[in-house]
Recover the amino acids of this structure.
């Protein structure tokens, strides 16, 4: 996972503050193309200053939703409010919104400077002011000396920054970004993630980003909405989405996860006990779930929350402990990934950090190992 | 080496097939003799005579005017048609309209010419316009069939044009009409220029459609050449053809030179962009 620019928690987050009014309100929006339902009764509230990510695979409806915000598509049903104003019937050129396109959509026949100035020119801003604001914006994205170049004379990263500058120069209240980093290589992408977050915090603009890259969404955004088949599967902060997924889809879409099927045998206020044939042990989880006893549920355990050992772990009472044989090891430098085949036949993925420097691994292929995890590690999924 | 030899022969034969007739035409334009097929020594007298032949020069001038006007008109109409086909999405009967725009490309010219003649005659009887047949009717006729070519060229260019360019312009506050003139038009300009040139050439070439819709006193150059065959071609026509070829060849040579230079410049720019990181 990439290094995360940590957001400083300065105040009560706006989505938890009942006094806050959402800046963008999407109300039961549906969009159909013929028989195909691209977006299905989606409702969302996005607050001023947020860095909001719409995350999903291809065909999940995320781009369609973004295009409806920009005004390139009209909702079949439902309403969109930006700053309290109903956007129905308002064309793209009259919305207080700018968009950064996946292809960047730089005008090939104009220089960098003219590209950035285009939006201001449409608004009839005075020439001196245009020059000043374009200059300042190009400095912000560190492209001052490329002002006279044409887009084809720039590298991919530079084009991306021109596109960003062009969409920000009009000082929109809301910026829509369609896969902003999709066309960049990995190293440049990580660097640009930081830049995007910094620029967003500096200018205080509300960002809505569409991405299929979960790492990108986790790194940059204040909140994420995970979309699947036109429906929002879950909305929450990156931590909430990762640690407390509400459905199998979300758990499996974000990061990797081990899924155990089981039956609830004990359901108390402070814990649940789940008997799992899959895991070959009882799963003890220290939070309550509201499911009928004997219900079949799935328990998700993240690979990095499982500990590997050759000796049976201390305090093992048969709960959250199981055994298996190491089948595959992938050494990634910072971490190693172990694929362990349990006695029940299920393969479990375990990630362990390589804290100590060594050339020989203490645990190697075909070793018999114990897997154990703490009571907080598992998440019960009922959907 | 054997192989190379055979290939070289094939090459020579191919080019000879294309260029020997033209070379002969140029050669005989400098022929002293009045008979086109008999060499009577070198002379430039046919060029001198050509410059005094008002009928031939007048026809050439008319042809150029008609070609320029109909090319311009067909570029305007063709761009609009291409735009509608490429940008209106899926409307009812789109395939039908798409097919209908290309139909004139395969329609026999005789039919195009005859139907236009009937239309002009009917129009003249009904509303008194066009008043007789001449330059106007030839221009209109040429516009009808060259427009189809232009529409196809523009449409294919627009299909490959990234639609998000137009959306980006709109997103930045430009109204649709402005987007067209400031973004779309400059980007597809090369396609428009090549469409215009194609239309110009097609119009300059045409003899069949023009024969149907021209009237007395308005004879295009191809018509003059065609009709003069009956009395034996005067070497003046060779001279005129040679002159036109020189003009066209020079134009093409300059155009390709400019294009090659732009290509080199673009390659250098891209190199610079990669190095500039």
């Amino acid at each position: 996972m990439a290094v995360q620019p940590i957001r400083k928690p300065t105040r009560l987050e706006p989505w938890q503050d009942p006094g806050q009014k959402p800046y963008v309100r999407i109300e039961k929006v549906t969009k159909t193309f013929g028989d195909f339902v691209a977006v299905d009764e989606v409702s969302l509230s996005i607050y001023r200053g947020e860095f909001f990510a719409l995350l999903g695979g291809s065909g999940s409806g995320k781009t369609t939703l973004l295009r409806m915000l920009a005004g390139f598509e009209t909702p079949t049903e439902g309403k969109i409010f930006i700053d309290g104003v109903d956007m129905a019937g308002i064309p793209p050129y009259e919305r207080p919104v700018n968009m950064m396109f996946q292809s960047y959509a730089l005008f090939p026949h104009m220089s960098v400077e003219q590209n950035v100035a285009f939006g201001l020119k449409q608004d009839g801003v005075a020439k001196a002011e245009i020059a000043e604001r374009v200059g300042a914006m190009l400095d912000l994205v560190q492209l001052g000396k490329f002002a006279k170049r044409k887009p084809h004379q720039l590298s991919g990263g530079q084009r991306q920054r021109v596109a960003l500058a062009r969409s920000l120069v009009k000082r929109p209240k809301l910026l829509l970004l369609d896969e902003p980093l999709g066309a960049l290589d990995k190293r440049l992408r990580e660097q640009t993630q930081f830049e995007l977050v910094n620029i967003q915090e500096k200018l205080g603009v509300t960002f809505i980003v569409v991405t299929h890259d979960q790492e990108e969404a986790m790194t940059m955004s204040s909140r994420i909405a995970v979309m699947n088949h036109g429906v929002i599967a879950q909305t929450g902060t990156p931590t909430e989405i990762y640690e407390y997924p509400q459905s199998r889809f979300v758990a499996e879409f974000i990061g990797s996860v081990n899924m155990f099927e089981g039956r609830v045998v004990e359901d108390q206020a402070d814990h649940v006990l789940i008997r799992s044939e899959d895991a070959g042990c009882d799963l003890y989880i220290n939070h309550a779930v509201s499911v009928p006893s004997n219900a079949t549920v799935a328990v998700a355990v993240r690979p990095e929350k499982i500990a590997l050992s050759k000796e049976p772990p201390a305090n093992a009472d048969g709960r959250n402990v199981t055994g298996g044989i190491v089948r595959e090891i992938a050494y990634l430098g910072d971490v190693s990934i172990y694929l362990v085949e349990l006695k029940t036949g299920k393969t479990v993925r375990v990630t362990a950090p390589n804290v100590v420097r060594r050339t020989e691994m203490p645990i190697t292929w075909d070793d018999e190992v114990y897997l154990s995890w703490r009571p907080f590690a598992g998440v019960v999924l009922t959907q | 080496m054997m192989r190379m030899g055979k290939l070289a022969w094939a090459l020579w034969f191919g080019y000879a097939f294309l260029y020997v007739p033209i070379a002969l035409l140029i050669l005989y334009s400098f022929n002293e003799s009045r008979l086109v097929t008999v060499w009577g020594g070198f002379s430039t007298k046919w060029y001198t005579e050509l410059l005094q032949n008002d009928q031939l020069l007048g026809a050439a001038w008319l042809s150029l005017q008609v070609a320029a006007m109909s090319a311009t008109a067909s570029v305007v109409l063709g761009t609009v048609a291409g735009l509608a086909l490429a940008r209106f999405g899926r409307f009812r009967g789109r395939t039908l309209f798409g097919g209908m725009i290309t139909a004139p490309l395969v329609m026999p010219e005789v039919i195009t010419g005859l139907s236009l003649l009937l239309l002009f005659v009917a129009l003249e009887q009904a509303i008194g316009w066009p008043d007789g047949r001449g330059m106007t009717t030839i221009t209109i006729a040429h516009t009808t069939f060259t427009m189809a070519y232009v529409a196809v060229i523009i449409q294919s260019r627009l299909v490959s044009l990234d639609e998000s360019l137009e959306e980006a312009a709109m997103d930045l506050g430009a109204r649709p009409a402005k987007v067209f003139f400031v973004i779309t038009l400059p980007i597809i300009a090369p396609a428009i220029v090549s469409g215009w040139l194609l239309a110009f050439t097609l119009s300059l070439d045409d003899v069949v459609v023009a024969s149907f819709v021209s009237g007395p006193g308005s004879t295009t150059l191809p018509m003059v050449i065609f009709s003069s065959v009956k009395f034996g071609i005067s070497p003046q026509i060779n001279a005129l053809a040679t002159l036109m070829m020189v003009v066209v060849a020079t134009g093409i040579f300059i155009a390709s030179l400019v294009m090659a230079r732009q290509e080199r410049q673009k390659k250098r720019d891209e190199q610079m962009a990669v190095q500039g990181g």
About this structure: Chain B touches chain A through 24 residues (CB under 8 Å). Residues 235-277 of chain B form one domain.
